[in-house]
Fold:
Amino acid sequence: MNELRLKIAVQRSGRLSDDSVGLLRKCGIRFGNGMGKLRSVAHNFPVEILFLRDDDIPQYVEDHVADIGIVGENVVAEKRCRVETVERLGFGSCRLSIAAPRAFTYSSVADLNGKKIATSYPNILGDFLRSKSVDAEIHTISGSVEIAPSIGLADAVCDLVSSGSTLFSNGLKEVETILRSEALLIKSPDQVDQKSEILEKLLFRIRAGKAAEQNKYVLLNAPNDKLERIIEVLPGMRSPSVLPLAESGWSSVHSVIPEEDFWEVVERLRTEGAEGLLVLSIDQMIR
Ligand code: PRT
Ligand code: ZN
Structure:
């Protein structure tokens, strides 16, 4: 009898591949991803990984060829397949923007009226232009969009941007951001029920890893008369653990602090008299 397995589609080779595979490995799932492989069955968790082109992932999920997929929000928005977001994954961040040659005088989106815009995202761009009542011509091309203005193919482009260096080196400036994107975990709205238990287990692990990445574990020593002020500074999951040190009158305080403001918290802890601070990364965090 065939073992019931959740099929997960990930990008085979590209910007999301390493992070997608890394995420599954961080969930403790062991599988091979040898060169040229299209499919891999995990050894220790009921999942099968399908390695595909990112553009195909939403359709494969809609068609139940894969049960879930990891793909950029930009691709999901463009493909308009019947899929829903299960989790935002926090990697593969970029934005879809309109850019024009530096010499183009741009003051508002109305300046795009009558212009030709090259893009690989005609659906998203079309919706945006309609929503702004702009009448521009969309020229769909599948790659190297950034060179379109310099070869006379278009007046502007609509493309993905992360650092902005591709636009810069092609003499373009970003004039409108139309979508902010990150990798998503998607599924079909009518997913097979028997597999939802496996998905729940996987999600539990993904969320534990995500929470861990967003927090740090902090240990410090403090004289007992300063403990009250120090504890006030610590946000923590609940109240911090306080353990007596061998040296009388001193304690060790352990707590969890959000990654985004840990430097500020650490500075305040020092001001309040904390010593011997250790800040550690957390591997998994289950609330
Ligand atoms: O072969 P396959 O079809 O699977 O891959 P692909 O070539 O279509 O996609 P790939 O691997 O380039 O990107 C996969 C996904 O990564 C995208 O769908 C986005 O969700 C995400 N992502 C994040 C990006 C970028 N950042 C990005 N910077 N995708 C593309 N770019 C390109 C952009 O198109 C432009 O050419 O990088 C250039 C701009 O980068 P900066 O840093 O110079 O601004
Ligand atoms: Zn692609």
Observations:
- The longest strand covers residues 172-181.
